[in-house]
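@channel sequence for tomorrow's demo:
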Amino acid sequence: MRLVKTHDSRSIDFYSADVGLELELPFALSEISAGFPSPADDHLELKLDLNKALIRHPSATFYGRVKGDSMIEAGIGEGDILVIDKSLDPKEGDIAVCFLDGEFTVKRIGKQDGGLCLMPANEKFKPILVTGDSDFLVWGVVTYVIHKTR
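structure tokens (generated this afternoon):
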């Protein structure tokens, strides 16, 4: 997977998805337990191509690198890479990259007092109510988050 930077903003840097490359990585045959340890596989026979695993709509998929911590309690932090699908219809509860009054932001789509609201996942930030006067669109729905653990 190669990333080509297409746009940067104060809160997200955008990259196009180069799905022309195949990179098959070894994939564990059994599930990996997040609870008690399970016997390890001696064989890593299957291959996994992250382009195929993470992207359903190649021409409508982009990556974005997160700046800031307004979504930290949703598992999205500084430097994380978002897989963003512009072809999906956003629904309440989706995490989406939104364009609001000249700025991009990643937030959970919610409703408050009958109106559309962009919900942060960090108590330091307040929900953003989208009004009829707002220049607003849902740019794309976040389908995956890739982040470093080390």
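heads up for whoever presents: DSSP finds one helix and eleven strands in the chain.
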